Known about the structure:
Elements: H1 3-17, H2 23-33, H3 57-61, E1 71-74, E2 81-84, E3 92-94, H4 101-104, H5 120-130, H6 136-144
Antiparallel strand pairs: 1-2, 2-3
Helix pairs in contact: 1-2
Amino acid sequence: MSADSFHQKVEKCMKQKQEVSEFNDFSDAVRMAGGKNGFVKDMQHAAFYNWIDPHSVQKVKSQVHLSDIVQIVAERGKLTLKYKRSYEQDFEQLDFLKKSSKKIVTVQPEAIKQPAGIDSLTRDTIIKKLGPLMAQNRLNFWKNVPIE
């Protein structure tokens, strides 16, 4: 199934629902559009991790740019990439990690403990100015949104 036809099915399901005001309404529409194979995973903050950035700035400055690459290969268990600048040439090796990070790159980082929030002033302004115009369920969302 192409992406366009799936998006069309999602739009059709959203029109059938008539009102899509919460994320749960949207995920239900996507689930219905998928038919018997429809699967929607609602991601929570604990499904994301605090990954460190292990690339070496010095190595990257002297390396190739993504716009110059026509093919790239990543091999399981290797900490380097292979790439080609043209289809006719052989693969070149790209080593872009810091030496110190090569030891810890295989360790899974810590999961995010709490969801990212918004500024309390922003939340209070939204509730004050837009709250009277919102449905009760939307207002409850803004009252309970996490704060930084």
